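Much of the work behind modern protein science is quiet bookkeeping, done one molecule at a time. The fold becomes a row of whole numbers, each drawn from a learned catalogue of backbone shapes. The protein below has been through that process, and both of its lines are reproduced in full.
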Amino acid sequence: MNVIEKKCGFVSITGLPNAGKSTLINNLVNEKVSIISHKVQTTQNAIRGVFTKSHSQIIFTDTPGLILPSTFFKKQLSRAIFNNTYESDINLVVFDPNRKISEKEKEILKKLIRTSKNNFLIINKIDLVKKTELLKISKKYNHLFDFQKTFMISALKKKGLNELIEVIMSKLPKNKWLYDKKDKTDQKNEFIFSEITREKVFQLINKEIPYDITITTEINSNKITQFIFVKKTSQKPILIGKEGKKIKEIGMRARRDIQKKINRRIYLELKVKISK
């Protein structure tokens, strides 16, 4: 009797800000594990999503968008992205074909790609570009960077994802699985619920406030209490809004997504506090 060995590997999802990395990881694992926003740099942690099929397990890591490391925080982020890519079996480099890349960004991408043995070019948002243009873009990026394979996808519409999964599975090393078959992420519900609410803040609050906040979550049966910490006293009334309308809308949207995720009704209480 032939025993089929299990396969397991790490796949990093990298690229410039707003390339659609979070949408990609969510639709690859068929679960919302990373927040989505039109604002850049909303992903602040390396988020793991787990895909298991047959005898293969893929551990995807969504990383913050690559940026010029101008501040200490950005340098820390940049170092974490490079370390994660180095440790991965495959690196998916996601591009928005409508976005031009600067010379400095090209240099950062070249350094990143050199840290991984297997780099796949992922051209996302293909439904927004003519086919002739996509071929030109693919040729250009393959000339600039060292890619083993090229995939043209629409992460939002789930086009091309099955083929991408199949190729990744064929290249996984033989390894024991790190997660149960039913697992979709390595994060606990407290973190995921905090991220859901942070996403709603990004959707409803302008300027820099969403980048300044931190959220903690306490779960007590069907009651969830979240503390939203702001850095400045002046930020608190902006987050709460006139007659509490803004925080109420944030709470309504967050509760809807949390209930959808856990498939039961909950009571969500939001409290805004000033971080000491």
